[in-house]
Amino acid sequence: MNILFIANELLQVCGISKHLYHLVDGLQKYYPNNEYFIITGGGNAIQKFQSIGVPVVVNENLIHQTRSITGYIKGIKEVYSFVKRNDIQIIHSHHHYSASIASKVSKLTLVQTIFTNHGILRKKGLLNHFNGDHIIAVNDKIKKEIARMSNKHVHLIRTGMSETSKTNKHTNERLRIISGGRMETEKGFEIFIKAIKEIPLHVRKKADFYIAGSGSLEEELKLLNNDLNTNISFLGEVVDFQQFLIGTDIFVMPTVAEYEGLPTVLIEAALAENLIISSDFFGHTDIINKGNGIIFNKGQVSQLAEKLIEAINNFEKYSWYIKNMKIKATDMFSQHKMINQTYNLYQQALKK
What we know:
Elements: E1 2-7, H1 15-30, E2 35-40, H2 46-50, E3 56-58, H3 69-85, E4 90-93, H4 96-106, E5 112-117, E6 134-137, H5 140-149, E7 154-156, E8 175-180, H6 189-197, H7 201-204, E9 207-212, H8 218-228, E10 233-236, H9 241-244, E11 250-253, H10 264-271, E12 275-279, E13 294-296, H11 301-313, H12 319-332, H13 335-350
Parallel strand pairs: 1-2, 1-4, 2-3, 4-5, 5-6, 6-7, 8-9, 8-11, 9-10, 11-12, 12-13
Helix pairs in contact: 1-13, 3-4, 6-8, 6-11
């Protein structure tokens, strides 16, 4: 079986890229007799994929942000040529733009198309957001929403994470509180910074605060940090973030995105035994409940500040939250489960 994955970009700080990495890495381990290829628009994580032996082809016509009618047509032609040269049986897309290109290629070939939808887009554009012979949703909320918005049959296959290092959890004299991801408006880092400002100084002194990642708002967020004197350390892009989280205590997910699915970084934090404090984003109920995490209303700075104060002052009280979340995340987000379910879907697709 020859399988082509198409991604908008491969980035170090990107949940979709992390999902794809664990998927391809696992498929190679469990089903090594197949051929796997990636076409992407670019990105700074290409070498990471190449290091596990996956051929990566860069084609800028697949980048959604710089799309044009000419680029769209060129993308179809170039993917079609790749499919024919490499006898591809399945195209598995991870962005609605690349899924649209794949659907056009499928009409010219016998290739089967699969699209993993990582989150619902708020506004509908010219392109169908649900192209594919089979649609995969990464959580139950997304599955139900796609079923409501389209007539597609949707498969629930959760993101799977590979085993982390067996290093024991660090013990810190001061709590280490971190948030991380792409520094864009919808990720809510401004909320995190402003909430820290509202924490009384005598409480704030019990913890160190960090933000990991990069993005278009990085300099603006650093200026806000300086203006508010919140003393947050900006770490930039952390290559092995899951391993880094073994050394932190509390992970904050301040996202304000309307249709956030289930951020990969939250799964990483849960597996690394961090106490989770999260906004009530669209897909949060898929993993967070009253007994394993702390929830605040999306966009509410003062409410997040209150939750942080409570967690800092009574951190030991939440040790069972951390244990419950680790157990749930380990079971729900198994790489082995994701690989087997995805491969079974590939086989099902080829039987048509």
